[in-house]
Specification:
Length: 112
């Protein structure tokens, strides 16, 4: 078995993402990277409001893993998602269109 060096994430050892219900976020076990959410519509809609990955861990795919954890949670709890965070709406969803059916369709600000 070869020894690994550095902090690179490998396909065999992805970082564990945990749900922190008290802080309304999904985060890495070290609490350094996270995606915050707010529940709306009597808890039926998860508004993903902010994604944060420290500069020392950027480029490792953590933001995507955080989004996947949030979308999987929403799916398993029959929640729809509002992608308020620009990373979610502008980067994650275009790269992962299979999650688009979970996006909440009622936008009170919509003029259409």
């Amino acid at each position: 078995m070869a020894a690994t060096s550095g902090a690179k994430i490998t396909a065999t050892e992805p970082p564990k993402i945990v749900w922190n219900a008290g802080k309304h976020r999904f985060e890495t076990e070290d609490h350094e990277a996270f995606i915050d959410y707010k529940l709306r519509n009597n808890g039926q809609v998860m508004d993903l409001v902010h994604t944060y990955v420290p500069s020392s861990k950027r480029g490792l795919g953590l933001a995507s893993l955080l989004c996947i954890a949030a979308f999987e949670h929403a799916s398993s709890h029959s929640l729809s998602v509002i992608p308020s965070c620009s990373y979610v709406s502008d980067t994650f969803l275009p790269r992962n269109p299979t999650w688009k059916p979970l996006v909440h369709s009622e936008d009170p600000k919509s003029s259409i």
